[in-house]
User: What shape does this take?
Amino acid sequence: MRKATLLFFSTLLFQFVFSQPLWLRYPSISPDGRTVLFCFKGDIYKVSSDGGVATPLTISESVEFSPVWSHDGKYIAFASNRYGNFDVFVMPVTGGEAKRLTWFSGWDIPCTFSPDDKSILFVANRQDLVTNVQFPDGGLTQLYSVPVDGGKASMYLPVPAIDATFNAAGDKMIFHDLKGYENDWRKHHTSSVTRDIWIYDLKTKKYTQLTTNKGEDRNAVFGENDNDFFYLSEQNGGSMNIYKSSLDNPSASVAVTSFKENPVRFLSRSKNNTLCFGYDGEVYLKKANGEPQKLSTGAGSLVIVVQDRDQNNLHFNSSCKNRRSLP
Assistant: This one.
């Protein structure tokens, strides 16, 4: 009886450990649409957008996350806490040494490269302008810029401009705001501080609010014509999905995805109009006029190659139903 009971609970434990989502997070597709970055167990990996073997770009005891691509596809920026707090680093996408660019005592989280790829824009809470009408608060950040070659960081915008990205022409920036504290991962939140999408015109220095949904609107990216834009939204009380709208008529939007059980996260877009995002702990791609496809489907399966402390290669295949979970 004792052996049977032990076998029963061991089977339950095995099923629990090997049936959880992979929790691949912060996916980001390359400008040419051929490569996807994602985070797994605190490191950054890259894999072909057709699937295949995912190889690590960072291997350390620290946590690396929020990878973003340069517009020419040659470099990536990311946040790492290898020196205590999260700083901005830059490195070639082919691998190699990561160069530290910020040394602030708080968190510095990159969101995009400047249109000319000479600077990296990042979110941080450093110093409000004396003229800022917002009450100084530790949760209300500003947008900063730091040269890719290293140097002094400077304020780019004095307001919270989260997940900011530029249009192709480089004269407009789209982002979501932050009006007050609310947990980033809370679902179905409605209040006066829910996030909205804004656009900033670099020539006129004008801010324009694009969405007024009572729920969350986040993580906007421009479409290929610089007028359309995609964003994540909980419109009509539903789960977070991708919606498409336009600068000409931002009050009108069309649902691009229709997931129901879990929210869509981490939206990015390539120049060939392929959308990349996270859902249920895995990476999805959606080509123009196509249906969302999990990265493990298509030309190949996604195999994650990591190394344990004894430098032994470990392989995790996301196309298998039983797969190892994150701790």
Q: What stands out?
A: The two ends are 32 Å apart (CA to CA). The helical segments are 2-17. Residues 2-17 form the longest helix (16 residues).
